[in-house]
Every structure is written in structure tokens, then in C-alpha cells.
């Protein structure tokens, strides 16, 4: 395979103009409302091209024939550049001067490690960084590293390396010196040799700080850190950073690639290692009064979590944004349409107020050869919420079992409107609800156990969930 295309800056491509769509603004939505955007899992595949041989459309399909390729991609492939640019083109029409962007990682494609190298990974990150900067030259961007943003993928070390140094240099226009130091050289309180971890914090505005974690250090496939208690000293650094934020009367947005908690699509499976997940949950509970929200990527799907303290009180709201890339494996029953989103927050206490989720119907875009990005949902309107504070999300999760229509809508959004014939009930629904409401091992296990016997007891609430086959697919036209 020739991955030489990765070493070139992909030329800008002109996409069909999408119709402008109203976005919430301070003057027309809610007084005292701020906004920021979340982009994640771009996964550029520069080898994507239309060809009569469906096995040669993209290297990210790993030889599996593309099913319905078009100019904006295919569900068995990572993103062509034209798809990524169409997303940013649409986003740029809606962006306001006071907005900022969080970017939670994964720029390179899903290809075997032998097809890439450190230089190629850095070149892809550089390509995506420059593309973002071209579209949003005056907007602050706060990135986080993903598990594919290293070579070999997943194996992020605890020492200074070429990727950490390159990321710091590429992101220098967005980050201040202290953030660049911890990103590239590690926890500054350590003595030599100094661990390095690809994480940082930075003040966004008075009273609001972004803490960008490198959760790849806790990711199961990362063999480099599997026996470490506190890889790169990030846990210690995180606690010190949150303590300092509290003393400074700041609120914190946690951003990272791999989320905390349990995967909603897999039973008893944490996104990071279970031991590190327990440590994160403990830290987040301890400092929950400082943390105003959590924002993750990695799963490619759209999901919500709420962190409960040890007494069952909801203390933090957590959000996992769906991916720009539409890729899935051949055996997966569903994928996601390309997506990006905007958050609204209260400018006084920085609590979360709403989500405006945007998506591209990939099949339709390919048929029309025009990228008509549009709004998929507004979260408060979709579920009748007053806000996105932890108590509201707890009530929402509890309501899903009682109200099958509400959960069906949630699961449709989980797939980013991929295929309404794919439904989730029984054990599938139990997994989704338990992952949403319980982030620690003991509470999650109890939730799943009760669900498997016909119901879940949640802090005095009884959720009537039948134990039956979960995922039901009446038609899968895209397989």
C-alpha cells in the first residue's frame, strides 16, 4: 500500500453549499448563554477515491468491498477529505466570534499499523490542524489526543516523544506556554526523568478552565502503561489542577478522547481499564463541585452519562459526541451518520444548558452529490428537559425504561439517525441505561444484575426491564 498521499496537504475541495440554518445566539436564544463546538474522530483516509473496484475505494475498509461509495464517503470507510471539509464549511456558517471549539482526537485512519509511521501520523494531525485553522482562524481550539494519534496506535508512552512534541508545536497558536509544557514534557512537579503524558489545562475565560486529559494512558490496548498505577503522574496532576481551580473559584470542563464509565454497547466493559476507571470516578466525585461538564469522543456514537456520588446524588453531566467518520466494521449491525455538535452553557455557573446536534445523511449526500448538513435534534426539545444539569439527566435516564418511545428516540440519536429499523430492547436497553446511570463497577454490576432478572432498582426507583434478546434488526439495507 502506498500511503504517500498522507504526506501531502490535501487540497481544498469545493462542496455543494448547504442551506443556512438558524443557530442559537445570545440575543435570540437565552440571556447569559455561551456556546462551544465539539468535533471528534475525524479519521481522515486520504486514500479514499471512487473506483470500479469496491475493494480499492479506501484502505480503511481493509479489503472489504465498499457497499455504496460516493463523493462524501461510505459506511465501511473512514472520512474522505471532502466529507471533513463539508462539516467545517457548515460549522463555519454558524460560528460566532465568542465561540470556542473542543477537538477530542483521532485524526489518522483505521488501517493496520504497518501502513503508517510516526511521520505519517504527525502529517495527518498537521493536515487536520491546518484545515481547522483555515476554517476558524479567529476561534480558540482546545484539542485532546486520541488513541489513533500515535504510532503504533494505542501505545502512548509516559515519556516525551515525537508525537507529543509535534502536537505542542502544531497547537502553539491555541495554547499557552504552561499548557504546551505539560502537553510535550509532562508533569512539571516531577523531578528528572520527567514523565510526559500529552495532557494540559488552560483558562478559557475568567472562571472557566479546560482540562484536557490523555485517557489513552488508561486504555486497555496500551501495553506500555498496563502495569502502572498512575501513568505519567496524570492522576496526581489532575487532582492538583482541580484543587487549584477550586481555590481560584474556577469551573472546569473535562475533555478527553476515551470516556470514563462503561460502554453502552458492551456488557461489563469499561472504556478505559477498570482499575483506572475506578480511580477517575473517585477523583471526579471528590471534585464534582468544580467540574461543570465532561466531553468525550472515541465510541463514534452519541450518548449521555450522569455521575452519581456514593449516596446516589447526581453530581456531574457527561457527554460523548458522535464521530465525523461514518466507518463501521462489516459485522456491526449499525454505524453513525457523520456528526458534529454545539453546546450551550450558562455563562454565570458554566452549567450545561443544551445540545444542538448536526449531522449529514451520508446516503442522501452521495445520491445528490451535495452535503446538506442539518440539525438532527435539540436535546431539551427532544426530551422536554429544563436543562442538562445532572438531576435532569438522571430523570431522563430513569424515564427511558418507563417510556419506550423516549428511549427509542435516544437510541435513534445514538446511531445519528443511521437506520430506524434497528431497535434496542431487553438486554440491549439494560446495557444502555446502566451505562448511562452508573460509572463505577459495583453500582453498574448491581444495575445489570437486577436488569437481567427483570428489573433494575435505582435508588428507590424500579425500572421494569424484561430480559430478552436485545438488539433487533428488521432490515439492514446497508449491510
Name its key features:
single chain; 479 residues; alpha/beta; six-stranded mixed beta sheet; 12 helices; 16 strands; disordered N terminus
Account of the protein in words:
The chain is of the alpha/beta class and 479 residues long. The protein is built from twelve helices and 16 strands. The strands form four sheets. A six-stranded mixed beta sheet has the order 3-2-1-10-11-12. It has a six-stranded mixed beta sheet with strand order 4-5-6-7-9-8. It is globular. The protein starts with 32 loop residues before the first strand and ends in a 6-residue tail after the last strand. The N terminus and C terminus are likely disordered.
Helix-strand blueprint:
Blueprint lengths: L32 E7 L41 H14 L5 E4 L14 H18 L4 E4 L18 H9 L6 H9 L14 E6 L2 E5 L21 H14 L3 E5 L18 H13 L4 E6 L6 E6 L5 E7 L18 E8 L5 E8 L2 H7 L5 E5 H5 L6 H13 L1 H11 L7 E3 L2 H11 L3 H12 L3 E3 L2 E3 L7 E3 L6
Major β-sheet profile: 6 strands, mixed
Q: What is the count of helical runs?
A: 12
User: What general form does the structure show?
Assistant: globular
Which structural class do you get from the secondary structure elements?
alpha/beta
Number of strands: 16
Spatial order of strands in the largest sheet:
3-2-1-10-11-12
Give the integer mean of the pLDDT values: 89
Distance between termini?
Answer: 26 Å
Strand content: 15-25%
Runs with pLDDT <50, length 5+? 1-20, 188-193, 452-479
Helix content: 25-40%
Strand/helix succession: EHEHEHHEEHEHEEEEEHEHHHEHHEEE
Cα-based radius of gyration, to the nearest Å? 21 Å
Amino acid at each position: 500500500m502506498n500511503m504517500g498521499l498522507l504526506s501531502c496537504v490535501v487540497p481544498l475541495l469545493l462542496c455543494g453549499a448547504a442551506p443556512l440554518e438558524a443557530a442559537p445566539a445570545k440575543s435570540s436564544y437565552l440571556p447569559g448563554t455561551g456556546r462551544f463546538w465539539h468535533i471528534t474522530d475525524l479519521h481522515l483516509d486520504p486514500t479514499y477515491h471512487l473506483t470500479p473496484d469496491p475493494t480499492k475505494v479506501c484502505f480503511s475498509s481493509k479489503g472489504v468491498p465498499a457497499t455504496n461509495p460516493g463523493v462524501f464517503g461510505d459506511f465501511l470507510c473512514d472520512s474522505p477529505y471532502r466529507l471533513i471539509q463539508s462539516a467545517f464549511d457548515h460549522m463555519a456558517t454558524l460560528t460566532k466570534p465568542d465561540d470556542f471549539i473542543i477537538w477530542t482526537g483521532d485524526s489518522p485512519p483505521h488501517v493496520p499499523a504497518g501502513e503508517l509511521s510516526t511521520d505519517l501520523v504527525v502529517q495527518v494531525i498537521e493536515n487536520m490542524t491546518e484545515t481547522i485553522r483555515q476554517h476558524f482562524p479567529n476561534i480558540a481550539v482546545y484539542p485532546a489526543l486520541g488513541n489513533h494519534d500515535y504510532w503504533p496506535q494505542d501505545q502512548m508512552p509516559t515519556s516525551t516523544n515525537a508525537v507529543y512534541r509535534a502536537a505542542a508545536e502544531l497547537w502553539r497558536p491555541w495554547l499557552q506556554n504552561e499548557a504546551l509544557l505539560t502537553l510535550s514534557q509532562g508533569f512539571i512537579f516531577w523531578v528528572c526523568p520527567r514523565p510526559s503524558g500529552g495532557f494540559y489545562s488552560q483558562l478559557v475565560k475568567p472562571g472557566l478552565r479546560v482540562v484536557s486529559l490523555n485517557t489513552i494512558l488508561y486504555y486497555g490496548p496500551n501495553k506500555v502503561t498496563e502495569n502502572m498505577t498512575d501513568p505519567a503522574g496524570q492522576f496526581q496532576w489532575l487532582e492538583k489542577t482541580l484543587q487549584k481551580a477550586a481555590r481560584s473559584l474556577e469551573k472546569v470542563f473535562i475533555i478527553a478522547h476515551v470516556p470514563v464509565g462503561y460502554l453502552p454497547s458492551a456488557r461489563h466493559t469499561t472504556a478505559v481499564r477498570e482499575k483506572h476507571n475506578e480511580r477517575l470516578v473517585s477523583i471526579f466525585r471528590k471534585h464534582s463541585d468544580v467540574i461543570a461538564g465532561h466531553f468525550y469522543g472515541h465510541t463514534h456514537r452519541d450518548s449521555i452519562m450522569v455521575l452519581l456520588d456514593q449516596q446516589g446524588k447526581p453530581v456531574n453531566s457527561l457527554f460523548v459526541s458522535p464521530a465525523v467518520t461514518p466507518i463501521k466494521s462489516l459485522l456491526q449491525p449499525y454505524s453513525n451518520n457523520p456528526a458534529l455538535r454545539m453546546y450551550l452553557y450558562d455563562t454565570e455557573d458554566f452549567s450545561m444548558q443544551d445540545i444542538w446536534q448536526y449531522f449529514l445523511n451520508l446516503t442522501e449526500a452521495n445520491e445528490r452529490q451535495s452535503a446538506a448538513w442539518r440539525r438532527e435534534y435539540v436535546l431539551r426539545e427532544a426530551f422536554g428537559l429544563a436543562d442538562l444539569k445532572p438531576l435532569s439527566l438522571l430523570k431522563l435516564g430513569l424515564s427511558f425504561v418507563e417510556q419506550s418511545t423516549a428511549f427509542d428516540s435516544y437510541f435513534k440519536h445514538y446511531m445519528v439517525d443511521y437506520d430506524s429499523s434497528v431497535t434496542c430492547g431487553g438486554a440491549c436497553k439494560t446495557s444502555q441505561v446502566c451505562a448511562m446511570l452508573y460509572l463505577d463497577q459495583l453500582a453498574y454490576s448491581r444495575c445489570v444484575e437486577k436488569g437481567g432478572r427483570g428489573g433494575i432498582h435505582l435508588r428507590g426507583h424500579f425500572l421494569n426491564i424484561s430480559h430478552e434478546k436485545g438488539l433487533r434488526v428488521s432490515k439492514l439495507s446497508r449491510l
